[in-house]
From TrEMBL:
Any GO MF annotation of the entry: guanine deaminase activity
Cofactor note: Binds 1 zinc ion per subunit.
Protein name as annotated: Guanine deaminase
Domain Amidohydrolase-related: 69-428
Function of the molecule: Catalyzes the hydrolytic deamination of guanine, producing xanthine and ammonia.
Organism: Pseudomonas berkeleyensis
Family of the protein in this entry: Belongs to the metallo-dependent hydrolases superfamily. ATZ/TRZ family.
Single GO BP term: guanine catabolic process
Functional pathway: Purine metabolism; guanine degradation; xanthine from guanine: step 1/1
Enzyme Commission code: 3.5.4.3
Reactions mediated catalytically: guanine + H2O + H(+) = xanthine + NH4(+)
GO CC field: cytosol
Length: 435
């Protein structure tokens, strides 16, 4: 955290609420020439330069021209051990796990390897403007130690957990119901609530845990305040059929988790492509969240996420990349693909809804909206400087744009890591693009 008072001047845009709830016009605040004032790693004030500059004598003001300052992006579902296997060819979920994922995750028994990948992963997140993520480790507790050690050095707000998996996976990658519980508990004691770090109890998905393991995971989830629960649900049709076979006594996929007390505030379910209305209603009623992972759902051929259905039920929804099944670390690219997922269903995705999903919506899904997601005073100073002229094509397209929503839409379609000029975490610059 920086002990300084510093101001940043550029166009500034942030979400105030969900456009689906308050309407687009009330959902954001925009200053064409704005000032973001940071004090001791927190937002102190945001406003128009004309109003704030006269009151800031003696304060260092950094001016970015033709740039847009936004809150840092929030990725509500990603796997750091899968960084090196992103873009692996040709399979759907269950074959993809066996062919690529499990052998890759085996390497994380080696803490030095885990530390190396954690560094690469965090650099990649920050290059892409993601300042907070909900992260799967591998089954090895040392993978989570390595991840949190790296995140702590950068003072990032990160959530992670060790995978719990005691069946239907190679022997080299399984724990037991008891060891999974004990190792997760030790990690919670070591890391949960330390600085800006949070722990997530992380059963991989229902097929790879026995009912005994799910029971203990549910017990652990209830044992500490503000813990997260992070898993997958209803991503792929063959997976859904398999869950039905493995848990014949349960009403459906969500009911497996519900039965084992793996539901409620801070429970985050990745994908949810094939959820029924009853499951959506239950997710909403319990305050659980779903991570929409468009690049992954398209890449693995999982299906089209029905954002409007979840929204109508009042489910909290965040945006996830799901790397390594997702094909990009960029939330801008995730929004590009999210738009196409909606188009394929004859639906729309407004650019201000996109902004919300990548920032305040993610914070809301993670119950971190008192700390993250926009520039209200007192929030963590995690923010980005985006460059409208990152590529010749973007620059030319922006010259044609007549309105903020047109520019924002083009940014989400054409932007990626190249559009992130600088990334700040807790008021400190943690990534500067070259050039
Ligand atoms: N379901 C269970 N494990 C995984 C995983 O690693 N990635 C994805 N996309 N889905 C899963
Ligand atoms: Zn995943």
């Amino acid at each position: 955290m920086s002990n300084t008072r510093k101001a940043y001047r550029a166009a500034i845009l942030h979400s105030l609420a969900d456009p689906a709830v308050v309407g687009v016009e009330q959902s954001y605040q925009y200053f064409e020439d704005g000032i973001l004032l940071i004090e001791n790693g927190k937002v102190a004030q945001v406003g128009a330069a004309a109003d704030l500059l006269p009151k800031l004598t003696g304060v260092d003001v950094q001016h970015y021209r033709d740039a847009l300052i936004t809150p840092g992006f929030i990725d509500t579902h990603i796997h750091y051990p899968q960084t090196g296997m992103i873009a692996s060819y040709g399979e759907q979920l269950l074959d993809w796990l066996n062919t690529y994922t499990f052998p890759t995750e085996k390497q994380f028994e080696d803490k030095a390897h885990a530390a190396e990948v954690a560094d690469i992963f965090l650099k990649e997140l920050l290059r892409n403007g993601t300042t907070t993520a909900l992260v799967f480790g591998s089954v090895h507790p040392q993978s989570v130690d390595a991840f949190f050690e790296a995140a702590q050095k950068l003072d990032l707000r990160m959530i992670a957990g060790k995978v719990m998996m005691d069946r239907n996976a190679p022997d080299y990658l399984t724990d037991t119901a008891e060891s999974g519980y004990a190792e997760s508990k030790a990690l919670i004691e070591r890391w949960h609530g330390k600085g800006r770090l949070h722990y997530a109890v992380t059963p991989r998905f229902a097929p790879t845990s026995t009912p005994q393991q799910l029971d203990l995971a549910g017990k652990l989830f209830g044992e500490y305040p503000d813990l997260y629960m992070h898993t997958h649900i209803s991503e792929n049709k063959a997976e859904v059929a398999w869950v039905k076979e493995l848990f014949p006594a349960r009403k459906g996929y969500l009911d497996v988790y519900d039965h084992h007390k793996l539901i409620g505030p801070r429970a985050v379910f990745a994908h949810g492509v094939h959820l029924c209305d009853e499951e959506c209603a239950r997710l909403a009623e319990t305050g659980s969240a779903v991570a929409f992972c468009p690049t992954s759902n398209l890449f693995l051929g999982s299906g089209l996420f029905d954002l409007n259905k979840l929204e109508q039920h009042g489910v909290r929804v965040g945006l996830g990349t799901d790397v390594g099944a997702g094909t990009s670390f960029s939330q801008l690219q995730s929004l590009n693909e999210a738009y196409k997922v909606m188009q394929l269903q004859g639906k729309k995705l407004d650019p201000f809804k996109s902004l919300y999903l990548a920032t305040l919506g993610g914070a809301n899904a993670l119950y971190l909206d008192d700390k993250l997601g926009n520039f209200l005073p007192g929030k963590d100073a995690d923010f980005l400087v985006l460059d409208y002229n990152a590529t010749p094509l973007m620059s030319y397209r922006m010259q044609q744009a007549r309105s903020l929503d047109e520019k924002l839409f083009a940014l989400t379609m054409l932007g990626d890591d190249r559009a992130v000029k600088e990334t700040f975490a807790a008021g400190v610059s943690v990534h500067q693009r070259e050039g």
